[in-house]
Write a structure and sequence with these properties.
This protein has 18 helices and 25 strands. The protein is α/β, with parallel strands linked by helices and 625 residues long. Strands 2-5-6-8-7-4 form a 6-stranded mixed beta sheet, sandwiched between helices. α17 (598-603) links the parallel β24 (589-593) and β25. The chain folds into 3 domains: 95-277, Collagenase (Catalytic Domain), CATH 3.40.390.30; 310-327 and 339-421 and 553-624, HAD superfamily/HAD-like (Rossmann fold); 426-548, Hypothetical Protein, Haloacid Dehalogenase-like Hydrolase, Chain: A, domain 2 (2-Layer Sandwich), CATH 3.30.1240.10. The protein is elongated and about 100 Å long.
């Protein structure tokens, strides 16, 4: 199989004349035919690739190819003397046309470019040695379709570097094996045509799988790619370890000879495959194949381009021991406890897992911008993310980064500048304060960097000890609380939050009850009580939130996108609660975690794993690149 690309002639003189090679990045299709290096190669459908041979040893994935980045350089080489034709006084020269191609979905990466440049030098060295061997040695199992190289004027070979996604698609399409592999060899030689050009074919190498194997086997990435290139080249020259034990032994010996003769590190690919540790790793990967399908591995994002410019990610999550209070005929029934599991980036312990942290760092390092969209205030969000080194100049959040906080009540734009804020009506806060005292439900008012409450309560204490918010100050009355908050609102940018039970967010009212209690009692009551003064929303079935009228996390995200000049088609969003629904619907790809509400999952494009299963990391590795 060939790649439909246009290649300039790369001549390799076998008598000390200069050789030129092309390194290209361009988009092209796989094609069944290829002319000499001096001609463009026409593309064609896969159906015409009848009789082509494909070889692979291990595992992994496939795609399309790239834009031109041609590097041409000279190289002096000597080669064995070819047989003379009658009447010729000069030795025949054989041209080697070698193309090193980089699949277009591989990002522009200095390491990949360096490897391509090294292959430009290494491939003809391996070809020369292999050609010498097949001419001067006798083999019992090698296909001898390629015999006397003296009958050809030139030899063509291309080497394509790609990622797992590309090679998996190729492996599925041509070998009906739906998994990635390390190397594929695609022969183009048709002996019956008697062409003056020996079209060896193509060697396709997954640089992503090569990187994992290099780590497993204790050598560098270029060492592993050389091993894969030699393996693929020998397949194209008629060796095939798959047909018999003798053939396997013969090809293994040839691999070892070429690598050793050229001074390259590492065992041959066949020998490496028998390594006990490698076999164990392969078995583990294959056994989890259905689970890992379409999901990239940690550390592999450097082999992919981002599909989006931004990821908007919800944050809040905890296990909340909630005291449920029911009002029945002016008396309260208490001491009913439930546990609520919430969250997206934070797990049920209100922590960011190391897996999520590494995924966010890796995505950010590859140019994907992460924006936090949360019910928390910015200082609290920064405090939590500092624990996993995600805050600050090189993190995903700081006082100088954009973000959506307090369910969209406070939005920061470029350089962390405040671009929107909305305060809750003080009358709503006042009514909630009286309700809190009457029913002995704890209330907390957030006023910028202060927390205010009306009486001591263990759940109020956990706000500080567990969720890293400021320690609550007890106000002597509802009016003192509202006045303190109102002054703060005018001087700074404050608002207020009512916590009925306990909550982790600010500047809003939140009630906790059973899902049935909220649906039948609290939601109808407060929807009527607030009317045009506030909005009632739910993040989870057990929680009712009251926020300033006309605001939501989704509206905050939309406002920020307009400020940044970014289209909704350029973002991916991850969330779990009903308050994330607008954001998920707005995004090009909305991911709801499996622990989320049914309503949220209903509007999402895909449903990911839960927050306790590193759902954010899973979504990034599966969908963002």
């Amino acid at each position: 199989m060939a790649f439909a690309i246009s290649r300039a002639a790369a001549t390799f003189s076998l008598e000390r004349s200069p050789a030129t090679f092309s390194i290209s990045r361009r988009s092209f299709y796989l094609s069944p035919t290829r002319r000499t290096a001096r001609f463009a190669v026409p593309s064609s459908s896969k159906s015409s690739l009848f009789g082509r041979r494909f070889h692979a040893l291990c595992r992994e994935d496939g795609r399309r190819l790239s834009k031109p980045m041609r590097i041409v350089s000279g190289l002096n080489k000597e080669y064995r003397k070819m047989r003379r034709r009658p009447g010729k006084s000069k030795e025949k020269q054989l041209e080697l046309s070698v193309s090193i191609c980089i699949e277009e979905e591989l990002p522009d990466d200095p390491e990949i470019s360096s490897i391509a440049e090294l292959l430009r030098l290494n491939v003809p060295m391996a070809m020369k040695l292999a050609f010498d061997r097949i001419t001067d040695s006798n083999y019992k199992t090698r296909d001898t379709s390629i015999r006397d190289l003296g009958g050809f004027d030139s030899v063509e070979l291309s080497v394509l570097l790609c990622n797992d996604e590309f090679i998996q698609k190729l492996n599925k399409e041509w070998r009906d094996e739906d998994h990635a592999t390390d190397v594929l060899s695609m022969s183009e030689h048709i002996p019956e045509l008697n062409l003056p050009v020996l079209m060896l074919g193509d060697i396709v190498i997954s640089i992503e799988t090569a990187a994992r194997q290099a780590e497993e086997r204790g050598h560098t990435l270029i060492d592993e790619i050389r091993i894969l290139m030699v393996h693929g080249l020998l397949h194209l020259l008629g060796f095939d370890h798959e047909i018999s034990e003798n053939a396997e032994e013969e090809m293994e010996e040839e691999e070892e000879f070429v690598l050793k003769s050229l001074g390259w590190k590492g065992k041959g690919l066949i020998r490496s495959a028998y390594d006990a540790e490698t076999n164990a790793n392969l078995h583990m990967e294959n056994s989890n194949g259905s689970l890992l399908k379409d999901k990239k591995k940690e550390g592999s994002l450097r082999f992919y381009k981002p599909k989006f410019k931004y990821i908007f990610c919800d944050m809040d999550g905890e296990i909340i021991p909630t005291v449920i209070l029911f009002l029945i005929n002016s008396s309260t029934i208490s001491n009913a406890f439930v546990t609520l599991t919430l969250g997206t980036l934070l797990n049920s312990k209100s922590q960011v897992s190391l897996t999520n942290a590494r995924a966010l760092k890796e995505a950010s390092s590859r140019g994907l911008k992460i924006v936090i969209a949360t019910g928390k205030a910015r200082p609290a969000a920064i405090t939590v993310l500092q624990m996993v080194d995600l805050a600050g100049k090189d993190g995903i959040i700081s006082e100088h980064s954009p973000g959506v906080f307090l369910q969209g009540l406070l939005v920061y734009g470029i350089n962390g500048r405040e671009i929107f804020k909305r305060n809750l009506d003080p009358n709503v806060c006042r009514e909630a304060g009286h309700y809190s005292l009457e029913h002995k439900v704890p209330l907390v008012a957030f006023c910028q960097d202060r927390c205010l409450t009306l009486f001591n309560h263990p759940l109020v204490d956990t706000l500080h000890t567990v969720y890293h918010e400021p320690k609550a100050e007890i106000m002597p009355s509802v009016e003192h609380l509202v006045t303190a908050a109102d002054i703060q609102q005018r001087r700074k940018k404050g608002a207020m939050v009512i916590f009925l039970s306990i909550i982790h967010s600010e500047w809003k009212l939140i009630f906790f009850d059973t899902a049935e209690g909220i649906a039948t009692n609290l939601r109808p009551y407060w929807s009527e009580a607030t009317k045009d003064h506030a909005s009632v929303v739910q993040a989870v079935p057990d929680m009712l939130e009251i926020v300033p009228f006309g605001t939501s996390k989704g509206s905050g995200v939309e406002l920020l996108l307009d400020h940044l000049g970014v289209s909704s088609k350029e973002i991916m969003a991850i969330g779990d609660g009903e308050n994330d629904m607008e954001m998920l619907e707005l995004a090009s790809l909305g991911v709801a975690l499996s622990n989320g509400s049914d309503k949220t999952k209903a509007v999402a494009d895909v449903i990911g794993v839960s927050n306790d299963e590193d759902g954010v990391a899973d979504a990034i590795y599966r969908y963002a690149f």
